[in-house]
Amino acid sequence: MTFDYDLFVIGGGSGGVRAARLASSEAGAKVGLAEEYRLGGTCVIRGCVPKKLMVFASGFNPMMTDAAAYGWDVKAGDFDWPHFRGLLDAELTRLENLYRSGQKNAGVTVHDARAVVKDAHTVELSTGETFTAKHILVAVGGKPFTPDVPGAEHTITSNEVFLWDQLPKSILIVGGGFIASEFACILHGLGVKVTQMYRGEEILRGFDAESVGVVADAMRERGIDLRVKTDVKSITKTDAGLVVDATDGTNDTFETVMYATGRVPNTDGLGLENAGITLGKRGVVEVDEYSQTSVPSIYAVGDVTNRINLTPIAIREGAAFIETVFHGRPTKPDHDLVPSAVFTQPEFGTVGMTEDEAKETGTIEVYTTKFRAMNTLFAGREDKTFMKLIVSAETRKVLGCHVVGAAAGEMIQLAGVAVKMGATKEDFDRTVAVHPVAAEELVTLKTPTRTV
Ligand code: NDP
Q: From the CA of 260, how far away is ligand 1's center (Å)?
């Protein structure tokens, strides 16, 4: 049987564009890709990239205070959101165009349309066209989930933040995960009065609890009204703003309420059931270790499969799929020891096990240090940097490394190499310190804080 395409990719985000480019340019496949919104996907258009630019923007406020403390004659004025927004839009368009030319140069045919699956080898586009393909890759990502709370129709999600004409004066952010905590810090830094409500004991559930405590304390010290064990009961729109009836008994009014209560796979109406694909909870596309669905010709990568929902993982999954299917080299994407960073302020970088997880493996030594970093201490700021190594007493391997403080994301990328290689505490110890940098503390931790 002949097909229109060797591969048809649905979704032009991180996983989809990587797989399409590799299939076309390296495996010589005939590739089509459909994207219904903007090429680049969540990461580039309404996720990691614009978020990180907002992190940079919000970081100038404390920097200006520090500069004054160092002797510069500067004072932070107001933040001009429309100015930033204009630059942000232009940058995202530049990136989107780069993605488009990257696909074109690789020989991929991009269809600016929504695609739905008709059967194991057929997709139908919103343009009315139908294409057949030997393989179909579902890489449609996820979308924000908002719980069914009375008044939820008055709320926004992170998608809308990047489209604001003006910054709100006040905001309530609901949720305690990556997105809620990052936006609480960003918007606070930009001058918005921020309240964050999280239903559980402590934000960033699943991360190392002690490290999270340092992040949460710092957020509160900086002025974020972080309320844990608190959820929204209802939201009422009034002339004064959105009145939020919360489980802590408060009835506060906010200009904006943003829900950041997780993301769900973007599989509604995608026709996957037509092809006989098994969907899991909340529409997750279930795949095996090679990203193959229950229909042999259809694969899925990225957030739609809800494995580890991070851009670099989607890219790896896309590349492993190409190795497996187009080069005949069965390759499983590696989901072990994935370093990551939460762009709160202070930043939080992490790789490997939390202390609670590591305790389950046997006796561990926990090394910690908390200090005021040289540059901000000089400026009189109270900010603390926190570092933690978790070491197996038996194998001496570093099982987990957690850093809270400036440039923690940069540090953890490199510490991640060592941990991934199976470095022992003694390997860290015999690495000479770079002086004077904050990261040198990671190789000069002498005595365990505790052995458990
Ligand atoms: P997360 O899964 O990280 O967090 C969801 C939060 O919402 C949790 O605190 C959860 O509480 C809470 N929640 C869920 N359902 C409800 C509900 N019904 N009522 C009240 N609270 C609720 O999701 P995010 O949306 O923050 O981020 C989505 C994904 O995007 C992340 O998992 C991450 O993989 C990725 N991401 C990565 C970033 C990075 O690498 N820096 C940045 C942003 C996103 P509970 O803990 O109690 O379940």
A: 6
Which residue has the least CA distance to atom 32 on ligand 1?
A: 309
Q: Are 257 and 237 in contact (CB under 8 A)?
A: no
pLDDT at 370: 98
Q: Please identify, by atom number, the ligand 1 atom nearest to the C-alpha of residue 144.
A: 25
The CB of 409 under 6 Å from ligand 1? The reply is no
Whether residue 22 has pLDDT greater than 90 = yes
Q: Whose CA is nearest to atom 7 of ligand 1?
A: 261
46 lines ligand 1 (CB under 6 A): no
307 lines ligand 1 (CB under 6 A): no
Residue length, the chain? 452
Q: Counting beta carbons within 10 angstroms of the beta carbon of residue 355, is it exposed (0 to 12), middle (13 to 18) or buried (19 or more)?
A: buried
Residue 79 main-chain phi, psi, to 5 deg:
-90, 130
Annotated catalytic, 154?
no
Pocket test for ligand 1, best of 178, 309, 313, 347 (most atoms within 8 A of CB): 178
Q: Per residue in 431-441, pLDDT tens?
A: 999 999 999 99
CA 254, CA 397: separation in Å to the nearest integer? 48
Q: What is the pLDDT of residues 70-98, one digit of tens each?
A: 999 998 889 999 999 999 999 999 999 99
Burial grade of 114 (CB within 10 A; 0-12, 13-18, 19 or more): middle
Neighbours of 9 (CB within 10 A): 37
pTM of the model: 0.96
| pLDDT per position as a tens digit, 311-324 | 999 999 999 999 99
pLDDT score of 247 = 98
Ligand 1, atom nearest to 203 Cα:
9
**Sequence-ordered list of residues with C-beta below 8 angstroms from that of 397, at least 6 positions apart, any chain:** 391, 422, 423, 424, 425
> Would you say the CB of residue 173 lies under 6 angstroms from ligand 1?
no
Q: What whole-number distance in Å separates Cα of residue 401 and Cα of residue 403?
A: 7
What is the model's pLDDT at position 75?
84
Three-class SS state of 229 = coil
For atom 38 of ligand 1, which residue has the closest CA? 178
In 105-180, the DSSP E strands lie at: 109-111, 115-119, 122-125, 130-138, 142-144, 170-174
* pLDDT tens digit sequence for 280-309: 999 999 999 999 999 999 999 999 999 999
